[in-house]
## 1
Amino acid sequence: MKDLAIGLTMGLGSLGPAIGIGMLVSAGLQAIGRNPEASSKIQTNMVLGIAFAEAVAIYALVVALIIKFV
């Protein structure tokens, strides 16, 4: 049962950030394609958004590790 909980935690906990990162990169690349002069500003904000979305996946990893070892 514990292994199922770990799998679900990681699977569902990384699904949201994966979708979010895909949407962020897609929107960022479209914005850069429309306005290449602003690419540095767009890229900075895109990378910052990706880092925040990735933090959610790291929280899911931490919860999965807590379930495994506690």
## 2
Amino acid sequence: MIGEIWVYLIENDRMAKVAVRLSRAYHGKGYGTEALSAITAFCFEHTELQKLWTDVDVRNEGSVRILEKCGYRREGLIRQGKMVNTWCDYYLYGIISSDYQSYIN
């Protein structure tokens, strides 16, 4: 398996969280960018969602690169927050429908 991608925590058909996880053997090959780009396009072009967001450990430079390549913007920093089952500093990233429209044009 290469990895997995989720769209979850959907709130009022308007906002949802996204997540991408890849097996280490597939890091750096463009699969994460391709998957996030495709799911972002699907959400904005085929659903009523207006915002997608996610969180990423500040040490995860690869995921930060993927998010920024796909048009997501850094919206904040949580210091020593709980992310999954670990306490760490993490960034919040998001993209809204109008950002996406500008990104693809």
